[in-house]
Request: fold
Amino acid sequence: MITVISATNRQDSRTLQVAKFYVEQIKEKTSEEVLLLDLAQLPDDILHVNMYGSAGQSPRLQQIQERVLIPASKFAFVIPEYNGSFPGVLKLFIDACSVYKMGETFKKGNKKALITGVSSGRAGNLRGLVHFTGVLNYLNVAVLPNQLPISSIENIMDSDGEIINLDTVQAINQQIEDFLRF
Reply:
C-alpha cells in the first residue's frame, strides 16, 4: 500500500490538490492500493499536555495509524513551505505517532518515501525538503533521491486546482515512476 500525505492542516489547500493529483497518477501506474491522508482532517485531540504520559495518544489517531500508516510500504509526502521549512502540523503528526507503534509505523519494514515541496515562492520548499529528509532518515525511512520542489504553485494550476504546466506534470510523472521502482 502507498499512502499519499497532504502535509498541511490548511483546509482546501493547493497542497491537497497536488496530493490528489499524486494519488491519481500513482493509481494509473500501479495495482497497489493508494490512500490519501489529509492532515487537515486529523483529530483535534492529537495535541494535549499529557500526550506522552498516562493519557497517551488519541484513539482516533491510533485508528489512522492502523488504517493508513502501518500497512503502507511507501509514503508520498506533499509538503508546503511554511516559514522556510515544513509545517508544524507535520512534525506534530510524526511526534504524536511516536506514542503508539512507532516501529511498525516508520522504523521497521524498510519503508520508503517520496517527498515533494510546494510553494508560492521560487524555491519550491527546497529547505523544508532537506529538513524533512533529516526527520525521515532518523525514522529509518529511505527517501527517494528525486525530490521535487514545485515553485510558483499558483502559476501552474488553473482555477479548478488542476496542474496545467506540462513540464511540472512530466516531472511529477518521472518522480512517481522512479518511486515505484525504488
User: Anything to note?
Assistant: The longest helix spans residues 14-29.
